[in-house]
Design a protein that fits this description.
The structure is a homotetramer of 271-residue chains. With 271 residues, the first copy, chain A, is an alpha+beta fold. The first copy, chain A, has helices at residues 10-19, 36-56, 114-123, 139-144, 167-171, 181-191, 211-234, 243-254, 258-268, and strands at 65-69, 76-80, 93-97, 129-133, 164-165, 196-199, 203-208. Chain A is globular and about 55 Å long. Chains in contact: A-B, A-D, B-C, C-D. At the A-B interface, α4 and α7 of A face α1, α7, α8 and α9 of B.
């Protein structure tokens, strides 16, 4: 077969540079030999893109938020000030500490639920990205206690279990928001070592070792919920992935996260 | 942290001016030190935007209408003449009184159901904005009598109850339209002090102290209905917000209405 | 109130000319004092628009077709040659007679199911426009025999009943297509004096006295089916419009068909 | 009736050339008197279009893939390297053999599941195009064993049956991917002589004698699944096409595949 490189138009070559290297198929690793400023700039760039991707994919609407731990500085994370995800720009990103504090000019409103992110980063050294969403198909599972389970290989990361956090246990009658550090810690405790926890009467928190996987897990948790509800309507006998299948499928599929990540990034370019 | 203001591009600064001040997070208050003409112009602008937002969000289609009380003049409200919501412009807005009369050039068709708005404004001095919609997911609740209840914090405003108006009680066999003042008064009586009333075999009326919250409540009532139906299919045991949670969550969430309002306004700019 | 005319920008004035006159609120009547050529040109224009509107509204996809009786010539109707609705242009429109014949250049493929239209126009002198669609939400009703009934005022035109045509009765084991005049006559017989008939394992035929109402009925039959299925899942006790409500609501709502018609036409301009 | 040819604008004439000839109504046959290079170029062009069409139609997302047998060379097929379907360009297409090998520059990642295509082409000399998808509505059928059956004429090609491949039978606890030739052969064996096979906890494989029909079958299998689930919720008594109806309807409908194929191609032009 002829070398295909010379068939690339200039546009395709630029596109090809995004997909060609085998490492595009692996989860985005920490770049080697990149300065802290470059790593930080990439983290901010991924964070802004993630906000727009999740809005574009129907996981976030005017509400919800995404964060990323500061590369090389585990005690801080990046999260926008209080603004709709689709409107987030690099200029909106603020550095927070693990108690939810952020230095910001007067008049800036921080997210009331920054404590979700703070507490998860403190409890989970393996987590580098966090999404808090009100993804629609997840809500019915959170208010019925029907266990969300992996229906297919794309949502295998649900295999370890999806606990449900009920804020009433930790806070009695509240406004449902995780707006203090103790409430965040209660949520993180419920989440445990899992990838997703539902929040009764509220939404979900999704965690991952990097931003592409945090976005991937948010998208496919929502889709799994929608399809699981359909399956349960069709029949009382639904076959889920068994634990071994879930473990293997998660490893395989998450190694390919570069494929949808590039597609999703392109869809929101210019938005 | 560096002042982030100087990182704003001119475009971002203009956008930032919309989201930066803390007061953007509160429900739109009556502007201080603004002339009556400016207040009226803002009300018309919000009204035109609300029409387009609700069409964009799938709450309105070719039918339905939105109104706002004239700032500083409780005996009048602004409502378009009879035209599809997406096509409403400032030039279509007419001032109506609380009996549904409006001065308009010959040949102008008023909305047959302007009496919904007239009667609600007369009965509810606290209400400054009214939406009448045929939002799809609400229709099944109105024709089955299954109570619409707040599934999550976003629809906490449903917590006081969602009465169902059946026009047959007030008008016998009708064409289903609230096209007289007595029928509007019967609807307002059913609505009582609540935020939403369903209209059997027709749609719903949604009321609020300002336009952003009237739009917010319309969007999230529709979404709650959709998700509640899904939850009820999943399980016979659904946990709703309890009354205290609903009260607190409504207060908290509605204080953030500026966040989605700005997003929704931007989505319909240029449409 | 000031005259609002002078507030119209030129664009709004042009738009206003479409919505301002009260007669826009009535079903499109036969134009008075218009030449046969003008009437025919308008019929073709409405027909092309209807094709695109119904595709835009999700009622038609690559399949389905729309026709209109030739103004002033009840023995002929206009229907495109075999092409996807979204691609129909004036140049594709062919004049057919009531036996399904059409003069066309060699190599032109006519719609195999033109006999649906031919037979309906022959059987129903009151009908001036016909839609044949595979609207998704209607299919489940056609294959289960669950009666489609008017859930709300928008679909009151279903109130006379929605018969189901099963082609097996007329044609034994067929390919499901009404591709002969006898089969079309069997379908027209099942339709009777109603506005909609479902076709088991196929789709539906929708008829009306003019094109705007044929489109309106197609859109709202599909939506009614979707919402009726939702209502039936919510509860075994669903309240439909009673016969008197349906009669009155149909008259009232169909008098307003100009409102959505103008909106729908604008949405497909330039497509 | 006047000859309509002269009414064609130049644009319409070019469009007309795509739809006018009767042969556009038949499945795309092998072009007569076309060189091997032209046939190959057309195959690649159809393959790139099919990828984009299936993404546009919601059958594929960031995952899934499409292939076509090399015209005149039954031992080879064309399949892209590992990239999201929407991003596939001609430059991404690689020639594979029936064991899943492909010559490619270093660093190119092939699809792990190319063995689906390889094994199907080896087992099915009648098949010229293959789609592997995770179409959402199909997933619940694959995990419940509820038989997918043709609800209407559009999905008559399901009439021969839709087997379900459970990879556990062939491979025990796997990551769910058909990533070896033996697994591909097991899938092909389950598929047998049918047009569609579901893959438990994964998705589906769809096969056809040409690309337009492979796309058609993918789109309508997904839609049939969605509507069949709705029908089964409405009633326990659902009427499907009987075997004779299915056979006849499949022949008739698939002869018209040129109609939606041209529409779908136009929708993705420029994307």
């Amino acid at each position: 077969m002829k070398s295909f490189l010379h068939q690339f138009s200039p546009v395709a070559l630029i596109a090809g540079a995004l997909v060609l290297p085998a490492r595009a198929q692996q989860p985005a690793a920490q770049p080697a030999a990149v300065s802290p400023e470059q790593a930080r700039a990439k983290a901010i760039d991924d964070l802004v893109a993630a906000n727009r991707i999740l809005a574009d994919q129907g996981v976030l609407d005017g509400y919800g938020h995404v964060s990323i731990r500061v590369p090389g500085d585990p005690k801080h994370f990046l999260l926008a000030r209080s603004v709709a995800p689709e409107l987030v720009t690099a200029a909106d990103i603020l550095e927070h500490d693990l108690e939810g504090n952020a230095a910001a000019p007067p008049g800036t409103t921080l997210f009331g639920e920054r404590f979700i992110h703070a507490a998860v980063y403190a409890a989970r050294p393996d987590v580098q990205a966090v999404v808090h969403n009100h993804a629609p198909s997840l809500i019915p599972f959170g208010v019925t206690g029907v266990p969300l389970r992996p229906l297919y290989h794309m949502s295998a990361f649900l295999g370890s279990g999806v606990p449900v956090f009920d804020i009433r246990a930790a806070g009695g009658d509240t406004d449902m928001l995780v707006k203090t550090l103790p409430l965040g810690q209660a949520l993180a405790k419920t989440l445990g070592a899992n990838n997703v926890a539902l929040m009764r009467g509220h939404g979900a928190v999704v965690v991952a070792p990097d931003m592409p996987r945090a976005v991937f897990r948010s998208v496919y948790a929502e889709l799994n919920a929608r399809l699981q509800a359909q399956a349960m309507q069709l029949s009382s006998k639904v076959t889920y992935l068994d634990p071994e299948e879930a473990k293997k499928a998660q490893a395989t599929m998450e190694a390919t996260v570069g494929r949808p990540w590039e597609l999703w990034r392109r869809k929101v370019q210019g938005k």
